[in-house]
Amino acid sequence: MEISSRTKNLGTENAFVVLAEVNKRIAAGKEIISFCIGQPDFDTPKVIKDAAIKAINQGKTGYVASAGLPELREEIAKYEGKLRGIELDPDAVVVDAGAKSFITHTIMSTTDCGKGDEVIYPNPGYPIYEAQTIVNGAVPVPANILESKEFNFDLDDFKKKVSDKTKLIIINSPQNPTGGVLTKEVLEGIAEIAIENDLWVFSDEIYSNILFEGKHESIAAIDGMKERTIIATGVSKTFAMTGWRIGYAINEKLAKSFSTWVTNITACAGHPNQYAAVAALRDAEKEAEEMTASFKRRRDLIVKELNDIPGFNCLKPKGTFYAYPNVTKACKNTGIKDSEELRKKILEEVGVAVLSDIHFGAKIPEEGEHLRFSFATSDENIEKGTEKIREFIKKNSK
Known about the structure:
By secondary structure, the chain is of the alpha/beta class. It has helices at residues 5-8, 14-27, 46-57, 70-84, 101-110, 128-135, 155-161, 184-197, 255-265, 271-283, 285-307, 328-334, 339-350, 379-396; strands at 33-34, 93-96, 118-123, 139-146, 152-153, 166-172, 200-204, 229-234, 247-250, 322-323, 352-353, 355-356, 371-374. It folds into 2 domains: 5-43 and 287-396, Aspartate Aminotransferase, domain 1; 46-283, Aspartate Aminotransferase, domain 2. It has 14 helices and 13 strands. The model has no long low-confidence stretch (mean pLDDT 96).
């Protein structure tokens, strides 16, 4: 019996691959400081956990409508509409077991398998964008996010990516892995392209509340874009609820299609978990703000520490809990071939785990070598981990 080539060639989220490496070393008794996994290191706020416990004790543990609890959909429409300054209809909201599934639901709802339909996605970017485009029979078209533009697209280059086969544009702001935020000018430029070419836009806004300067700008708030934008987000990052698996997408035209896909694949998101999400959106704003303030302080710390490592140059991330230093000079000074070799060496020799740029897409000419650090960890780990890397670089520099 054979495994399908589609499965054999399916891409993955490399953070989990590296995490497995890390856990194997920890199980063998090695001390590892990990910057590789993208989840808050805080406990879920008590008000949220209490809501789930109450729901369980009340017997709210069975199937619910695939689109999600009406109470949760109403709360999402209010909360996310207020954040973006637009009015959202609860009927446009669909809930699923995490926001990630909506990448797949969107590609399946806007492209046809094997017809050459194209999906433009950010590079570097979340690897599941490309993986799900390929596995669902569409053609991935990377659009480069440039450090030289403070991790924004070059709009002239972006326009060249659009063809008569383009069906969907994927954007992510604030961004994984760079921590960059798309400027209003870039968002307006992408909106103009989408309207002129009658394209859908999947806007991954899962980090919309982990923003360190200014207010969140959503492409959905631009005139003519709400009906063609799929806002994808959830409670995972904002409220330290990654394992609760509650995400949602918002689009009036595609809501029915998304609900059908949920029915086909997961049936519904966890019943008591949806009540926990209601409590998060209603009652945990203070705790979310405190977590974001902590991330901002850690952001300042890790940027300072990274820029003190010879050959590292780190722009200050404007959102998320990721730093994406350029390590081109460090590689050159140590005779290390590239960022992936550097990643492996610092894991093997000093016990610090990070991700390299190749885990997020193809290398961009003239943009150099990069590592990704998740600073969703303690000040002690940030200081200790960066010091270990600093010592390694100094020791091995020629």
